[in-house]
Write a structure and sequence with these properties.
heterodimer, A: about 230 residues, mainly alpha, B: about 170 residues
């Protein structure tokens, strides 16, 4: 749930809001979630596993980026306490839209919830075992058959939770678009938004994204090998 | 508060998933054991299939290793041979959905008896080959055959087992 844009009077300065890595992670996750869903439903478990490793890498990257990335991607910058969240919640019915250069306090919780459930989803998948014992996650040899089956069950439940969060996310984006006349989708594609004044966000240099990519990819690869070299 | 709570929350989720897995390691039967012959058979079948799955998984896990333990492979291949041979006897008439016991066996097991016999026979044939490869110590051959065995499990499940909720 991005927040950044008021089309209202005075919001005329076009400025950078989301960096490339954040947008790329977002849209790649959208594609991979669809692909993972489809490949599970159609029993393409080998593709499903590959898709899962990519999700592991992307989530790992986003977590690193939440600490070392650009200002609008950092958890410390957008995660607010209950008081600020409540205050923002109270302002929701107002049709005017206050520009927040980044995630608003409510959207921040949505980001965290989605990341948390993605971690749960991948962890349960790593240990899951299918009915025929043949299709299984790369860490399933650490648990017995019954436990692996339980992980598969949790993998299903966790996916339902993920679906709920995605629907909530879409409803929120639609709410901002229709009710508050704020388009959150455009900035997530282009990276730019209109502000009253340039918020002057600090963006992380490319080399840092490269380092984070190597770390995340290495981690995903290691996971896919079941933590064996 | 933000940074700390995020780290704690993330660690908690991962930890919880692992801890819950260890604590609830047994996905056992629910309720008291049934008294009818059909119910008893369905109950026993559930345990037998779990034993069969565990034996197959033990082989698959061993085959992943650089130096698979020959004894583990043969012991479990023998178990698999035993369970697959006995499998048709796990489905006596009256042990289907009508037994009153929660079972994932579809009525087609009995209404399409010939098809079910063919499917279980396919499993027996492929498991026999698998067991011979294990006895011969042919690890590469076992890896290839494990796909065929897995396929024959799946072939039967797709037709005669109630699909899992996804």
């Amino acid at each position: 749930m991005a927040d950044g844009g008021a089309v209202g009077a005075g919001a005329t300065v076009r400025a950078r809001l989301w960096d490339g890595p954040t947008r790329l992670v977002h849209w790649t996750l959208v594609i991979l979630l669809g692909f993972s869903w489809w490949s599970a439903e159609t029993d393409h478990l080998q593709w499903h596993r590959w898709s899962g490793y990519w999700v592991v890498g992307l989530v790992a990257f986003r977590l690193v980026w939440g600490f070392a990335g650009s200002a609008s991607a950092r958890f410390a910058g957008f995660v607010k306490g209950p008081a600020a969240t409540l205050a923002y919640l109270k302002s929701l019915p107002r049709r005017t839209h206050d520009v927040v250069p980044g995630h608003n306090p409510l959207g921040a919780w949505s980001v965290l919830a989605i990341l948390l459930i993605l971690v749960t989803q991948t962890v349960t998948g790593l240990f899951a075992v299918d009915i025929d014992a043949f299709a299984a996650g790369p860490l399933s040899d650490r648990v017995d058959f019954d436990t692996g089956r339980l992980f598969a069950k949790w993998h299903h439940w966790s996916f339902t939770a993920l679906q709920v969060l995605v629907v909530l996310h879409l409803v929120a984006v639609a709410f901002y678009l229709v009710y508050k006349r704020a388009n959150l989708i455009g900035p997530m594609i282009t990276g730019y938004n209109r502000f009253k004044t340039d918020p002057g966000l600090v963006f992380a240099p490319l080399w840092r994204a490269a380092v984070a990519t190597v770390v995340a990819a290495g981690f995903a690869w290691w996971v896919s090998k079941g933590f064996r070299m | 508060m933000a940074l700390k709570s995020i780290t704690v929350a993330l660690a908690l989720t991962a930890g919880l998933a692992l801890a819950a897995g260890a604590a609830l390691a047994h996905e056992g039967h629910q309720g008291p054991p049934p008294k009818t012959p059909g119910g008893k058979a369905a109950w026993a079948r559930h345990d037998n299939f779990k034993a069969q799955g565990a034996a197959f998984k033990a082989i698959l896990d061993e085959l992943k290793k650089d130096q698979p333990d020959q004894a583990v492979l043969t012991t479990n291949a023998n178990k698999l041979k035993g369970t697959s041979t006995a499998l048709p006897s796990w489905f006596p008439k009256g042990s289907g959905p009508e037994s009153g016991v929660k079972t994932d066996a579809k009525a087609e097991v009995w209404t399409d008896a010939a098809g079910f016999a063919a499917a279980s026979n396919k499993l027996q044939v492929e498991v026999s080959k698998f067991q011979q490869l294990a006895t011969a110590g042919d690890v590469a051959g076992m890896k290839a055959q494990s796909r065929v065995v897995g396929g024959s499990c799946k072939g039967c499940h797709d037709k005669y087992r109630v699909p899992e909720k996804k």
